[in-house]
Design brief:
The complex is a heterodimer of chains A (143) and B (500). Chain A is α+β, with helices and mostly antiparallel strands. Chain A contains 2 helices and 8 strands. In chain A, the strands form 3 sheets. Chain A has a 4-stranded antiparallel beta sheet, covered by helices on one side. A two-stranded antiparallel ribbon of chain A has the order 5-8. Chain A starts with a strand and ends in a 15-residue tail after the last strand. Helices cover 24% and strands 29% of the residues of chain B.
């Protein structure tokens, strides 16, 4: 499985592009998270490896931006492994290793579409990478 | 000393440390040894057990002496890296409180970070102002300092090392940001703090070996216990320590600033106490395990001193990552670092092993009967129950016409919709009725709001009032935990009482 971030602009969002591609390629696309409104938005999806290239090209042919995102950056010098983030993670991407170090599974992480752990880190060691067009990266942040 | 084989003294242990043959185990290792070989063997074989904890300890700080400027200043207000520091003494002694926040980066950088930066050898900007006197004429000052420029730089923490702490949950419908970190709505997560079986006070709960003058691991250097910590409450296993140590010799790894969104800043402190195993009783006590250490599950969404509790959990359950609250599985994570707590106990062990750390006998024991009293308050504050009154209600099967009539006869603006058992279903306002008339709507279902913002009877009125302002509404039905409607509180009630 590969993770892709699909971003729609204002015009594209009105079209059922994702549905068309799913039907055309018979691709079992798992939508991990999505933030979409009339002004555009993004979908984080999981696609089987064997059909990945075709799906990415199909989106790109329709002018939709597709990236394989780097979702999260953890500053291991800052992190002192308290673990505040662990229970917050909705996809259980964070865990305590045997030596009690906090470990991030970047394959599972939802990145900027979630970010629930970012403002709970007392060491400020977690950064979710804000993708272009993404206005949801810091939506959890308090004023 | 009736039976020499049944006790040993601190001096005997120090002799062994000098010769390099003291037997030192970390608290973690001691528990395993007692479990496998029993208390008697453990007492015979072990001289010292090292404990450790690494957590956010808000009642911490550092006292610094700057030396005099020329011309001299009697500092009145001062800031280090834009964090206001306290000036409690004569001219140039400052206290950096861990929770004071930067005026430029509040919630992100604070006194704990200033201390960490100084300990790390970084340059810190100091600004100060004063009113000027004949002997101290200067009124303003700006300079750059490092720890080397300071005469004294002592960590002076008045409450550290809480023996155990609450497990925090949030029963409300909104995410809350507390000193127990981010708590998701409706019990979607839980947090706890403390090292459990590794905590120093848990391993000597009767304060047999530690007291004023006990040498300890503090912030990566050596420090001392100087007395009971504030809020020390040993009888219910909530003991605390007051400690000091030379911060110039500490390490930024074991003293780190912490940032809690929506709450403020703090300082993570690494603290470890060596427990001399003077008798079998201490061998038994240091064998305490996480499963035997219980703490309360506390609802932090209730903004009161005595918050509702949902039973107890052990540190074993807390460290397992999930607990059960009200029959539901809740994922739980720690705010303090178990990894660092272990590192504290291991480092302290290695110091004793290599002969660079010797034990001390306390010159005075810590009190074991102190009680933590609540504040004496001479002025009462109003709560929701002080002003709430009976709600005018209706049920979902009633006609709009009937409800409109009730609004007029009862002279109210809000009708609370309830089911046959009195539980909250929705709310209808006079504005909703007006709109129904204008738009020709007949059914209550078309105009009733189901997303009702509510209040609890024992909430401070001020908080209920803020909630109304936040949601731009003028009344809150007051409900109990089962959503039964107890009454209603309106913005008129609030302004009558609070005058706003």
């Amino acid at each position: 499985m590969a993770r892709i971030l699909i971003r729609f602009n204002e015009e594209q969002v009105a079209e059922p592009i994702a549905s068309q591609i799913i039907i055309e390629y018979k691709v079992p696309m798992a939508i991990l998270s999505a933030h979409i409104n009339s002004k555009g938005g993004e979908i984080l999806a999981e696609v089987p490896d064997d059909i990945l290239e075709k799906v990415v090209n199909a989106f790109r042919q329709r002018g939709v931006s597709v990236t394989v995102p780097k979702l999260i950056e953890v500053d291991s010098d800052k992190c002192f492994s308290c673990g505040s983030c662990i229970a917050l993670c909705p996809v259980e991407a964070i865990s305590l290793a045997k030596d009690c170090s906090v470990e991030f599974d970047k394959e599972k992480c939802l990145g900027s579409t979630c970010s629930v752990c970012v403002d709970a880190c007392p060491a400020r060691a977690i950064k979710s990478i804000k993708q272009n067009n993404s206005d949801s990266a810091n939506r959890e942040k308090k004023r | 000393m009736s039976n020499p084989s049944k006790t040993r003294t601190v001096e005997e242990i120090n002799q062994k440390i000098r010769k390099g043959d003291a037997q030192v185990l970390t608290a973690e290792e001691m528990k395993k040894l007692v479990e496998s070989s029993g208390v008697e063997v453990a007492f015979k074989e072990v001289d010292v057990v090292t404990t450790g904890t690494f957590g956010a300890m808000c009642s911490s700080g550092a006292i610094v002496n700057l030396g005099h400027s020329d011309p001299p200043i009697k500092i009145e207000h001062a800031w280090m890296n834009d964090v206001e520091v306290c000036h409690p003494g004569a001219a140039v002694d400052l206290f950096i409180g861990a929770t004071n926040m930067s005026e430029k980066q509040p919630y992100e950088y604070g006194g704990g970070h200033v201390i960490q930066d100084l300990v790390a050898g970084k340059e810190v900007e100091l600004r100060a102002t004063s009113y000027g006197t004949d002997c101290y004429p200067r009124t303003a000052l700006k300079t750059i300092i490092t720890k080397e420029d300071l005469n004294q730089f002592y960590l002076l923490n008045f409450r550290n090392c809480y023996q155990r702490y609450n497990c925090a949950v949030n029963s409300s419908d909104e995410t809350i940001y507390t000193y127990m970190s981010k708590l998701l709505p409706r019990f979607r997560n839980a947090t706890f703090s403390g090292a459990g079986e590794l905590n120093p006070l848990m391993n000597d709960p009767d304060y047999e070996t530690m007291g004023m003058g006990t040498r300890i691991f503090l912030g990566g250097g050596q420090g001392y216990i100087i007395g009971e910590g504030t809020q020390h409450s040993p009888k219910n296993l909530n003991g605390t320590l007051m400690v000091k140590g030379d911060a110039k010799k500490m390490s930024p790894e074991f003293l780190q600033g912490g940032a809690f969104t929506g709450y403020g800043t703090s300082m993570y402190v690494g603290l470890g106490v060596p427990i001399p195993i003077l008798n079998e009783g201490l061998a038994r006590k240091t064998a305490i395990q996480d499963k035997d250490i219980l703490t309360d599950i506390v609802d932090y969404s209730v903004p009161r001193r005595d918050r509702p509790k949902f039973g107890q959990v052990s540190y074993k359950e807390l460290k397992s990552g999930a607990i059960t609250v009200n029959g539901k599985k809740v994922r739980v994570s720690s705010l303090s670092s178990l990894k660092m707590a272990k590192k504290v106990s291991q480092t302290l062990k290695s110091w004793i092993d290599e002969g660079s750390f010797f034990l001390t006998s306390p010159v005075e024991r810590l009190p074991t009967t102190t009680v933590f009293k609540p504040m004496r308050q001479t002025e009462e504050i109003p709560f929701v129950y002080s002003v709430m009154h009976k709600a005018v209600t209706c049920t979902e099967d009633e006609e709009i016409q009937a409800i409109a009539k009730r609004i007029v006869t009862k002279s109210v603006n809000h009708i609370v919709v309830v089911d046959e058992t009195g539980r909250l279903k929705g709310i209808v306002t006079s504005w909703d009725i007006t709109r129904a008339m204008a738009e020709g709507k007949k059914a209550l279902a078309d105009i009733e709001s189901h997303n009702v913002v509510t209040a609890k009877p024992d909430e401070p009125l001020e908080i209920a009032s803020k909630r109304m302002a936040q949601h731009n509404i003028s009344a809150l039905p007051v409900i109990d935990i089962e959503k039964k409607v107890l009454g209603i509180v309106t913005s008129e009630d609030v302004s009558e009482l609070l005058g706003r």
